[in-house]
Amino acid sequence: MATSLSSRLRAELAGLRDQGLSIHPRVLDAANRARTRVDGRDVVNLASNNYLGFADHPEIKARAEQYLREWGAGAGAVRTIAGTLRIHEDFEEQLAAFKHTGSALVLGSGFTTNQGVLGTLLQPGDLVVSDELNHASIIDGLRLTKATKKIYKHADPEDLDRVLAENDADGLKLVVTDGVFSMDGDIAPLGRLIEVARKYGAVTYVDDAHGSGVLGADGRGTVHHFGFETAEDVIQVGTLSKAWGVVGGYAAGHPDLRELLINRARPYLFSTAHPPAVVGALSAALDLVQREPEFMARLWENTRYFKAELARLGFDTLGSQTPITPVLFGEAEAAFEASRRLFAEGVFAVGLGFPTVPRGQARIRNIVTAEHTRDDLDFALAAYARVGRALSVAQG
């Protein structure tokens, strides 16, 4: 007897509830800023990826409005038919210049960018070697390919060397890593990874979702941070939805990469182009980060202060090197309870457990931004101190 839709939905949801994995997103009642209103409560926001505070910046909103009025509400088609407006190509040239790469192409999201680029590049007989903690979009993108897939230990160039030495291929060899890892906040040892990749004739593919706007001069990203931005054997992909405060994904690198993706990347070929307001906001964001370096300076000043104070309170931040600052609670229920208590104290910070992170490493992931004031951070730290003592986590 066939399974009905109702029974399938109810069984799956019941399973999620029984495992404590059912998600019920909180709802923001105001713009996503350092202080906002969530489910009717005014809070300090440590949960967003809005690193530079651009999501509600007046200059970015003004450029979005300008493009909306001049170019309309939507692009009207996919890029390859009638949806490529002049502003789309202008922004891609601006992005390539910013990234110091031979070309750049914008896609609908960071997630679909990984699907499109990996699906385009990798063919049967190719070899791809991926960091064990790479983002889910990389994992799903690789599942769509017929290349031989291997895993190396997290951020471990020696293990990457071992895997490449044990696995040969006549086709393309691709080493895939996040630039900044989204759950732990650590930076990939990119210089050493590229050195190993080149030893075996492999191309390095860097997902810089959490590095763009955060690392490198003017926020050019992890690849720039390590000095490889002009290398033609390095591919950069990422989102335009975190530090840039808007939405979208991009691929940047070899001069011919853009043309191949235009012809082969399915998410590009079959998705309507970004609305003009999005393009205007993104263009303004790239202008703003280069014109006003104080955004990045404040981001890192706040990051250093917040990490130091959490350490003083006795919290384990898992060696994070970036504004992504996890606070370890161990078991999922402890992290979720800490998140609930922080929210009651006026701090919005989300608990994460298995399967998002390994069992026994449940944590709250905090992201400070350039927009947070010292008062905001001190308010959050005082709440953390109280919650940590109540749950016997903080030692300070």
Automatic annotation (TrEMBL):
Pfam families: Aminotran_1_2. Keywords: Acyltransferase, Pyridoxal phosphate, Transferase. Its EC number is 2.3.1.29. It is an enzyme of class 2 (transferase). Transmembrane segments: none annotated. One of its GO terms (molecular function) is glycine C-acetyltransferase activity. Its cofactor is pyridoxal 5'-phosphate. Gene3D superfamilies: Aspartate Aminotransferase, domain 1, Type I PLP-dependent aspartate aminotransferase-like (Major domain). It comes from the Bacteria. Residues 42-382 form the Aminotransferase class I/classII large domain. InterPro entries: Aminotrans_II_pyridoxalP_BS, Aminotransferase_I/II_large, AON_synthase_class-II, AONS_Archaea/Firmicutes, PyrdxlP-dep_Trfase, PyrdxlP-dep_Trfase_major, PyrdxlP-dep_Trfase_small. Homodimer. Belongs to the class-II pyridoxal-phosphate-dependent aminotransferase family. This is Glycine C-acetyltransferase. It comes from Deinococcus budaensis.
